[in-house]
Amino acid sequence: MTDQNGQTAIAHTNIAFIKYWGKADLTLNLPTTSSLSLTLNEYYTKTRVEEADEDSLLINDLPQDGKRIHQFLDVLRAEMGDFPPLRVISENKVPLSAGLASSASSFAALTAAVAKFNHWDLSLEELSRLSRRGSGSATRSFFAGFAIWEKGDKDENSYAHALKTPDLPIALVVCKVSGMVKKVSSSDGMRRAQTSPDYQAWVDESAKQLDEMKAALAAADIKKVGEIAEANALAMHNLNLTAEDRRFTYLNQETVKVLEQVKALRKQGFIAYATMDAGPNVKIITKKDQAPAIKEHLAKRFRKIQFDIATAGPGISYE
């Protein structure tokens, strides 16, 4: 039984403090490491699905190549049983392909909308597992606040779950260095990074950092959270520079200048630590009461960069 009138779901994007950067299984989208993220209130995707003659996709009212969506919907059909072709209508409040995890919120919202459309009675963890086949990072966007994606070693045990933490006064200053579509996709970037001679060392260190991050969050130590997240992110980006298969970088000159200012802010006494996903944009981890001053400091020095403040966001919701 399906909902003939369609169904809408809203998922917020997330920023990984311990990164997902590498696949152990390409078909199942199993990661080489577990990862930990914070769901963000300010960036989200609203997706509606309606019965149609064929699978199709609109993003922000513009028709898109629906191949990836069709392939993902076919995965859901194979897993859960057949359902009609769907028109997917997506309103994205996240810059696409710029390292702000637009695919995470997009595939989380799509998975949730399809499940509701088909009246599947699934837990958040089950939805998380299904969404992984569309986007690994989507697994974490079903949960409010902090979430951990357990890497697992097979389809059944690779999914995310909520991480209970004290109420942290944490915020991110988001530096939109560029909104351009990146030249190296996340999937291709991961594949190349895994050819780095340093890759296994990064995997091993990431496991230790995940344990350290959980302890820092439990202690509500935002400074320590920032230190660990920055170390993990910089090491991830160094893998790209040392890839044996066509080394590359997502960072540009403005990114580097912002990172220099982050160090300067720390010398001034601010809690300020940088993290970057697959793109040039910098997210600065800080405390809520320090975020406005950091934003003002940077805005004076970088006139062409847009700065926003992001806070902890909610889990999946429906309209």
TrEMBL record:
It holds the Pfam family MDD_C. Its EC number is 4.1.1.33. Gene3D superfamilies: 3.30.230.10, GHMP kinase, C-terminal domain (3.30.70.890). It is an enzyme of class 4 (lyase). This is diphosphomevalonate decarboxylase. It comes from Fructobacillus papyriferae. Belongs to the diphosphomevalonate decarboxylase family. Residues 173-304 form the Mvd1 C-terminal domain. The gene is mvaD.
